[in-house]
Prior knowledge:
It is a single chain. This protein is an alpha+beta fold. The protein is about 30% helix and about 30% strand. The chain contains eight helices and 15 strands. The strands form two sheets. Strands 1-15-14-6-7-5-9-8-2-3 form a ten-stranded mixed beta sheet. A hairpin with a 5-residue loop joins strand 10 and strand 11. Helix 3 packs across helix 5 and helix 3 packs across helix 7.
Amino acid sequence: LNMQVDWTKVASITFEDVLKVELKQTICNPLSLGGFSLDSNRKFSDKCLQPKVKVKCELPIDLNKGFKDWVPPKDDCSLDPLLEFIVSNKICLDNISIITYRGILKKIAVSPFDFYKNKWIFRFTRMNDIVFVDEIKLDSGKDKSIFIYGGYYFEQCMLESSIDSSEHIVVTTKFGSNRCLYAAEIDGYNQSNDIVELKTHKQLLSARDNNHFRQTKLLNTFMQCHLAGIRQCIFGFRDQCNQINLVRTHSTNELEKICQNDWKKEKCLAVLTKILDWAVSMITDQNINYFVAYDGDKSFEFYSSKSSDHIPKWFIDYIERSLS
C-alpha cells in the first residue's frame, strides 16, 4: 500500500494477533431507522421507493444488452448522504460511537477469509464522541465495468418496474463497546415487504467452481445481508456469453449452513469488533485524521495525518446545535 507522504505511522497489529480473538460476537437484529434514495447524480431524497422484486422472471437475461450506452455511476465514498439523512430525520446520536457504511464494515469482517486478499484503507475522524469512517478508494487496476453493469442490469430485470435511483436503509447495531449507525444500499423487496439481495455469478460447472463460490461470493453476500438484517438473496448465474439462464433463491441462514466448513460468521464478527475497538481507542484528537490500512495479508496499520475538514460544516453546525 502506498501511503501519503504526510501520514505518520502510529501503531500496527498483525493478522495473527487479530485472528487470536476468541470473542463470540453475534449480531443482534439491526434496528432500522428509515431510508433514503440517491438519483443518478447522487442527489439526496428522504423517500425510499421500496421497489418490488418480480415473483417470476423471464429467462434468459442478456447481460450485454445496453452495455455500450451505459454510463457508470459516480463512484463517491462521501458520507454526506448518510449525514443528510441524520439531519433530515433528526436522529438522536447520544449513544452512537461510529457512523459509516455497511460496505466498510463488511470489508473488515471478511478479512480473515478473503480469498483475494483485497487491500483497503479507511479514514477515521473523531468529532466529539462520534467517529466517522469513510473509505479511501484504491485503484484495483482491473476493468470490472462489464460485471458491474451485469449486476445492475440483472437488478433492473428482476424488479417489477425500472428505477433510476439507488435505495438505502439506515440501521444501528452494536459491535463490542461500539454502537454503529450505518447505511446500506438495497436492491428490492419481495411480496412480503422483506428486503431481497440480488447477485450475479458465473455458472458453477465444476467442484472447483463450487468451492470458489462458497469461499468468495457466499462469504461476501452473507456478511452483506447479515449486517443489514436481510433474510433472502437471489442469484442469477451467467454463462460464457453473459446470459442468465438459471436463477436460485436462498435464505441468508442457508448460505451460512452451506459454507460451514469454509468460513465462520463468529470469527468475522469478532475480527470486525476487534479492529473497531482497536482503532477507536487510539483516536484521541479530533483535529487529526486517522487511517487504518490493511495490506491484504500480514497486518493492519494505523496512521495519522493533518485534518482535511471533510465533515461538512452544515453537519458540524447540526451537532453543535443538538448539544447546546
